Structure formats: structure tokens, C-alpha cells
User: Which sequence fits this backbone?
């Protein structure tokens, strides 16, 4: 084999390397890393020539849950992978999903990628990637499974929190620095999930069927940028089907687009337990099979079955050879055989500060009437804190993105850190006027994503003999779909906190029975909503099996009055709110709602949050509603609330970052990467009846997110790109470099931004392009550029934004290529989509 030491000595200073059809800027890599890349292809050939057929087969399928086989006789070590869009996942056992029980697999818990997207800052995307890559290296990983770049088409989508918003241009712009940040640490990035994974409802079986223009303009640009501009080393295929076959083995998606048209020379690997077959996956470009639900790794589709088809002449050996060379290429690119490979670092103060900075830049100030914020900590004597997210941690929830972090600062802890000794912080959990489900604090059973949950089994018949569906539900609350008769069983393990009498209560419409450890405790058959109740003595710390059997068209809620109830009565918390100098309600979602494998059932805030928020903002105008969530929620109280903040899942330093913003230590600069609708019915998939378990037709076409709202003239609650500051910015002097441009020529827009306020702050300048006349229907506005500038009070800066020929183009189905039609284009510059400050036109000749 070629000596990597010798390769390093023959360093050629170059900043570009050709990968397929793209030139990748490698200036972000060290000289040693660039030199290593120069010798990769020769070393790949040297190793490849020595491999037996069986050894080749061993390199294209997993040999553990997150491992690929070593070839010890050639000195080729195992390839190690890890989940981790926002932190390296804790170690699991080699051959099962159980935790390995390591005591040194803690990792920095970074803000989720929605928070990165909300920063609108390529430097934050790069920083996120560098920290993630360095931590993965320190854990001995070779591939980190991230970043995620699927788009937020539907607010209900369970994995929106892992991704970068709804706009293809924004996601494409941020994925490139994220990929380079990861790969600068000698770890392969892995963009996922390619492609069209936009719902968790039947995620393995749903058939995605967009038209070609929608595919190219909306759902592929982020992946394309990762390949052509980021030089990404690996991509993960999606669970869903694409026109009747799994996306991993789609000839069009993989062989034609990814590998031929884009020139991707890295590894396409599967997600775990994907519906593929040997022949189609092999022939159409899948490279590495990572997870299949069989008893032995030898029975994987790319193991013995692939070997047999090659030996039988059904699949040419050259097909396998290409896959093997891709795997070897990835190994050598990240330095598996390089004794000077970076070693990484983990859980450092530097990484913790990075997590705090990224979280700070992602916080979005949605509303601030009467300058409620920032809070004046010199005048604060009594602060009332409420809400389900006040002291909730999120690191170990959500699914495969879970992170075992050394610590996680909650919003409450952040406030306590910031106001220590300065103000009294009173904490309450507000009770609802309605019966509330048994709180998650008491639920010992968990969904595999880590969320306390009940199992739910739906049956076809009242005798409950034929199973229709097995699922999970967050709490003891169920509602039948309108007009449908439901036959269900729900089960959970409940662990009381204190011994004594627990008054069980159930609001029931239908036939209902509750069994505790097999004994019927509560039962009734009602034709309208009726409350059943029964006392039962339970012991603290003991686990009880709760089983519910229900049939009917209605609903039920199972709650209780427990000793030393966790919740405060309405009269008490409202009285405290009226006396407080400030009220902060930390609400929103959790990973009981935002999680892999399950979509949300609706867009409303869980539990009684809407009711409590409405009463709080009425009781005290200085109430701050601070939402933590990765997907949109309805806000029926938005008009009445004076201060609304969106914080996302902010990682291990979230609480400190949130407190900094609330108290004015940092000036909010985040902007929404998603549209926040008033109602779920306003969103395209719901309005067009295109959300189901069978197929997604993408009926809205290229009109995803804000484009749909503009096309339909629907006013959202808060628009895409919206976000306020504690200072003010003025825009002036918009100039375009060219009055007209030729085909293939770029345009440059320049604008001056001035901080006219009294605080230093950052502004995101957004450029939207409008094509006045087109042969196809185009969105009213399309994001095609942005820049973030930091300004002291009174300071001005000029910002240049390049509009490339591709930005003026649409996908032409007649020529199967990008087309920029001659005509007039308007450049619209603003602080958000609904706050356009300046506009000028140019002509494309």
C-alpha cells in the first residue's frame, strides 16, 4: 500500500479538487489534509487489487449496528458510524439497540439544526459542524450521521426539529458550511435523508410522487449543494418510496441524478431497516447497507444474497467493485490509515461556549409590544415562571438524535444563574380548568425515543382480536377521528411520587375500562362526555400497570388528584401573576411531540397551554410567552400577548442563552426559517388533502411554505424570515451592478444597513427574487440571498449579495435542465418576507 507519510511529503498547494462534475473548494482543510486527498485514488486502487470477492462483500454491509467490517490482513480497520445531527449519540451495543453502558460516551449537546437555520448565519453552521466533527473524532467515529436537510413541508412532521427549515435555498446555503465543518475534523458528514422524507406517517411505505420540477427546485437543492459545493463524503437514503420503489434503489434519484448528473463519488448508505431488495439496490447505486431486520449480518441483502447473484452472473462484479472503491475512498479521505489523523476533542469549555453562541443566535423575538423585553434586572424583584418547558431537559429525547450530555441548562436554571441574589423566582405548574392527563412525571414506561409514553393498539373489531395498528401515545388521552368507531387498548407503567389516596378521574364518551395491575378500577359506558371517578391507595416508588380498554366514537382523558399535586390552582397562579414584576411562561413542545417515527396529531399546543397562556397575558401585560419547539404551533392568544419568543431546542446551554436574551445581555438576531401559520388547515398538504399513509403527490408543487401562503393570499401568524431586535435597522442605497445581464452572467445587489438604535445588534438582510413574467407559474417571491451583519449603534455597513444564473432559473421539464428566461426580475430586499424595504429591477437578456 502507498505510504501516507510519503504522500504528505509530496504536498501540492491547491485549493480545488474535481469531484465528478464539481470543483470543491478545499481551502478549509489543512495542508496535510489536502495532501492526503491527492493520494487517495492511488491508495484505493492499491488496496482494491488485494481484496478477495468475499472481502469486497464484507465492505458493503454492516458488521454491527454502527460498524462496517475490518480487513485485518490488509491493516484496514473497522469503519465506525454514529447518529448525531446535534451531538454524538451515546454508545449502543454492537448487535442490539440497548445502551452499551459506557461511562465515557458523553457529548456536547448542540442546538438542533432548526436553531442553526434560525441564525441565518453560515458561521454558526460551520461552528456547529466543527464541534460535531471534533466530538465524533474524539469518540472514534468515522461517519457522523448528519446534517439533516429534509424540508419542513408539514408542521406535523415529527422530524422537523432535526432539519433546516422550509426553504431550499436557506437549507442549501447552510448545509455546505456544516458539511465542511464536520469534514475538517477528519470525519465524514452524512446528509440525510435522500430524498423526500417529509412525513413520519408510514415513513417506510409512503410513496412520494412529486413532479420533476418540484423535485429539482424544492427537495434536491440542499443535497445537490452538499455534493457539488460541500464535497460531502456520504449521504443517507430515505425510508420512503419514490414512485413505487424505495428511495435507496431508485434509478432516477440515485444512479441518474446523484451519481451521474451531480458526480457524487462518495457512499450512499441506508437508514436502518429499509425496504430494499438485492438486485434493484445493487444495480441502481446503493453502496452500503447499514441495517436490515434479519438475524445475521450474513443475511443482509448486500451479503450472501449479493454474493450469490454475482456468482450466478445476475449482477456484474463491476457493480460491486464501484461500491467497494467508494467505501475505501471514504475511509482514506477521513484518514483511517493516516497516523497524523486528527484526534478530536470533546466536552470542552470551548464547545460549551459554542453551543451557547449558536443557541443565542437562533432565538427569534416574534413580538415585543410596549418593549416588554429586555427585562430590566435592576427593577426585577419578583419573577413568576410557569410552563411545561421551564425545567424540562430534551437531550435524551427525539429518537436517533438523542445525546447523553454532561449537563443541560434548563430555562429555569438559566434564569436562576442570571438572577442569582437579585430577584425572587417563583415557580408554579398551572392547573387547567379541564381534566388534565396523568402527568409525564408519573409515567415510567417510555417510547424508544426516550419519551414517557403509553402503548396504543388499535383493533378492527369490538372483540379486539384483529390488530390494525400498534403505536405509542404521549399521555392517557385519546380522541377518535370524526365519525370513526375506535377499538383500542392503551397501557403504561405508572409510578406514584407519594404514598396515599389517588383519586382517579376519567372524562369518557364511549365504553371505557381502566385496570390497575389487572384489577378493574374504573368503568363506564356513556353516550356523552361524563366524568367517572374512584379512589385508590398507591405506594410511592412502586410501579403499577395501567391498562385502558375503550370502544366508541368519542374520547377519554384519564387524570387524577395525587397527594401533594404538582399543579397550582388557577386562583393561586393568577394572583401570583398579577403581583409579579414579570411573568415568563416557557411552553411549546417536547420530544413527546417532536420525535422520530411519529407525526403530531394536530398543530395545537399540548395540554392546557393555550388556556393558561390566555389567562396569564390577561392577568399581567408583562407576560413573556417563550416557546421551545421544533415545529409550528397554533397561537390563538398571539394578538393579546405583548411578548412572544421562539427558542427551539437549544442544546446543553439553552437556559443560559435564553436568559441572556431575556435580560438583554444578548440582542436577539434570529429569523424564522419556517412559516408559523394561524391554523393547520392553512398549510398546503392539509388544504389540498395530500397527507396520508399511502402516497404524497406534492400537489402544491414548488409552492412550499411561505410560497404557498403568498400564492393563496393567506396571512400567517408570523411570516418566514420574521424576527425582531432590541435595536432598529435602516436600509438604504440599494444598487444593482448591472441594469441588464446576459445569460450565464451573475448580478450583484448592494445595500447599506444602519443601526439606528441604541444597542449593538445583528440584522439578517434577505433578498427575494421576483420573476415578472414566466412561461411557468413561479412563486411571488423566492429567497435567493441573505447576509448577516453586526453593527454598533450608529454604524453602517454595505452588504453585497450575489444573484447567480441558477437563482434566476426554474427547472424546465421540456429540456430537463435549468432555464432562465429573458425578462424583468425584481430584487426585493427586506428584514423578512413581510417587511420588504427596498426594490429594484434588472433585465435578463
Assistant:
Amino acid at each position: 500500500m502507498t505510504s501516507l507519510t510519503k504522500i504528505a511529503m509530496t504536498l501540492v498547494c491547491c485549493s480545488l479538487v474535481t469531484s465528478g462534475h464539481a470543483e470543491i473548494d478545499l481551502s478549509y482543510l489543512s495542508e496535510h489534509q489536502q495532501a492526503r486527498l491527492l493520494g487517495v485514488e492511488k491508495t484505493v486502487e492499491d488496496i482494491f487489487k488485494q481484496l478477495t470477492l468475499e472481502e469486497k462483500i464484507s465492505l458493503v454491509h454492516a458488521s454491527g449496528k454502527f460498524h462496517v467490517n475490518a480487513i485485518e490482513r490488509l491493516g484496514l480497520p473497522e469503519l465506525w458510524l454514529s447518529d448525531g445531527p446535534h451531538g454524538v449519540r451515546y454508545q449502543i451495543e454492537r448487535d442490539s439497540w440497548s445502551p452499551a453502558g459506557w461511562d465515557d460516551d458523553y457529548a456536547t449537546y448542540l442546538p438542533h439544526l432548526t436553531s442553526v437555520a434560525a441564525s441565518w448565519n453560515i458561521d454558526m453552521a460551520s461552528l456547529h459542524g466543527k464541534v460535531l466533527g471534533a466530538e465524533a473524532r474524539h469518540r472514534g467515529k468515522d461517519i457522523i450521521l448528519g446534517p439533516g436537510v429534509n424540508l419542513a413541508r408539514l408542521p406535523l412532521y415529527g422530524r422537523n426539529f432535526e432539519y433546516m427549515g422550509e426553504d431550499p435555498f436557506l437549507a442549501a446555503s447552510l448545509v455546505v458550511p456544516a458539511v465542511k465543518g464536520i469534514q475538517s475534523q477528519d470525519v465524514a458528514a452524512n446528509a440525510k435523508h435522500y430524498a423526500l422524507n417529509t412525513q413520519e406517517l408510514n415513513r417506510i411505505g409512503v410513496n412520494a410522487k412529486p413532479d420533476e420540477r418540484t423535485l429539482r427546485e424544492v427537495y434536491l437543492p440542499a443535497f445537490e449543494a452538499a455534493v457539488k459545493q460541500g464535497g460531502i463524503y456520504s449521504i443517507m437514503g430515505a425510508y420512503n418510496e419514490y414512485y413505487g420503489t424505495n428511495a435507496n434503489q431508485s434509478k432516477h434519484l440515485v444512479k441518474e441524478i446523484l451519481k451521474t448528473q451531480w458526480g457524487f463519488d462518495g457512499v450512499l448508505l441506508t437508514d436502518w431497516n429499509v425496504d430494499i431488495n438485492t438486485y434493484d439496490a445493487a444495480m441502481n447505486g446503493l453502496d452500503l447497507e447499514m441495517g436490515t431486520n434479519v438475524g445475521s449480518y450474513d443475511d443482509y441483502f448486500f451479503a450472501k444474497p449479493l454474493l450469490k447473484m454475482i456468482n450466478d452472473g445476475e449482477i456484474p462484479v463491476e457493480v460491486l467493485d464501484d461500491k467497494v472503491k467508494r467505501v475505501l475512498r471514504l475511509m482514506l479521505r477521513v484518514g483511517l490509515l493516516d497516523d497524523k489523523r486528527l484526534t478530536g476533542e470533546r466536552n470542552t469549555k470551548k464547545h460549551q461556549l459554542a453551543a451557547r453562541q449558536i443557541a443565542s443566535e437562533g432565538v427569534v423575538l416574534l413580538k415585543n409590544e410596549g418593549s416588554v423585553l429586555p427585562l430590566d434586572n435592576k427593577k426585577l424583584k419578583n419573577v413568576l415562571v410557569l410552563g411545561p418547558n421551564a425545567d424540562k431537559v430534551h437531550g435524551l429525547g427525539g429518537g436517533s438524535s438523542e445525546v447523553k450530555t454532561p449537563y443541560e441548562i434548563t430555562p429555569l436554571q438559566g434564569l436562576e444563574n442570571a438572577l442569582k441574589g437579585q430577584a425572587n423566582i417563583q415557580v408554579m405548574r398551572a392547573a387547567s380548568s379541564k381534566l388534565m392527563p396523568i402527568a409525564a412525571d408519573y409515567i415510567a414506561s417510555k417510547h424508544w425515543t426516550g419519551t414517557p409514553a403509553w402503548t396504543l393498539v388499535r383493533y378492527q373489531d369490538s372483540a379486539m382480536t384483529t390488530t390494525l395498528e400498534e403505536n405509542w401515545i404521549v399521555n392517557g388521552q385519546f380522541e377518535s377521528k370524526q365519525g370513526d368507531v375506535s377499538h383500542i387498548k392503551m397501557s403504561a407503567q405508572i409510578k406514584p411520587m407519594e404514598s396515599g389516596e389517588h383519586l382517579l378521574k376519567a372524562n369518557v364518551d364511549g365504553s371505557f375500562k381502566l385496570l390497575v395491575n389487572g384489577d378493574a378500577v374504573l368503568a363506564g359506558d356513556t353516550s356523552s362526555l361524563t366524568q367517572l371517578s374512584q379512589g385508590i391507595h398507591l405506594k410511592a416508588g412502586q410501579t403499577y400497570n395501567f391498562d385502558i380498554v375503550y370502544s366508541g366514537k368519542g374520547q377519554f382523558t384519564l387524570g387524577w388528584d395525587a397527594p401533594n399535586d404538582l399543579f397550582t390552582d388557577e386562583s393561586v397562579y393568577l394572583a401570583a401573576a398579577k403581583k409579579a414584576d414579570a411573568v415568563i411562561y416557557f411552553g411549546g413542545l417536547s420530544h413527546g411531540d417532536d420525535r422520530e417515527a411519529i407525526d403530531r396529531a394536530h398543530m395545537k399546543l399540548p395540554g392546557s397551554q393555550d388556556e393558561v397562556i390566555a389567562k396569564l397575558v390577561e392577568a399581567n401585560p408583562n407576560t413573556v410567552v417563550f416557546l421551545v419547539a421544533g415545529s409550528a404551533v397554533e397561537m390563538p392568544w398571539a394578538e393579546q400577548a405583548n411578548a412572544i419568543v421562539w427558542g427551539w431546542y437549544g442544546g446543553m446551554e439553552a437556559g443560559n442563552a435564553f436568559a441572556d436574551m431575556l435580560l438583554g445581555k444578548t440582542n436577539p438576531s434570529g429569523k424564522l426559517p419556517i412559516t408559523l401559520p394561524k391554523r393547520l388547515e392553512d398549510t398546503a398538504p392539509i388544504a389540498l388533502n395530500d397527507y396520508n399513509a399511502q402516497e404524497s403527490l406534492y400537489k402544491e408543487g414548488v409552492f412550499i411554505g411561505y410560497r404557498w401562503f403568498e400564492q393563496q393570499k393567506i396571512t400567517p401568524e408570523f411570516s418566514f424570515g420574521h424576527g425582531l431586535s432590541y435595536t432598529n435597522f435602516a436600509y438604504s442605497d440599494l444598487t444593482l451592478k448591472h441594469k441588464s445581464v446576459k445569460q450565464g452572467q451573475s448580478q450583484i445587489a448592494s445595500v447599506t444597513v444602519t443601526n439606528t438604535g441604541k444597542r449593538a445588534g445583528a440584522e439578517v438582510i434577505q433578498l427575494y427574487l421576483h420573476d415578472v413574467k414566466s412561461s411557468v407559474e413561479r412563486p411571488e417571491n423566492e429567497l435567493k440571498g441573505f447576509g448577516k451583519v453586526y453593527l454598533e449603534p450608529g454604524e453602517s455597513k454595505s452588504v453585497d449579495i450575489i444573484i447567480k444564473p441558477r437563482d434566476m432559473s426554474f427547472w424546465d421539464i421540456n429540456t430537463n435542465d435549468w432555464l432562465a428566461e429573458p425578462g424583468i426580475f425584481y430584487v426585493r430586499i427586506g428584514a423578512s418576507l413581510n417587511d420588504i424595504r427596498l426594490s429594484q429591477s434588472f433585465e435578463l437578456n
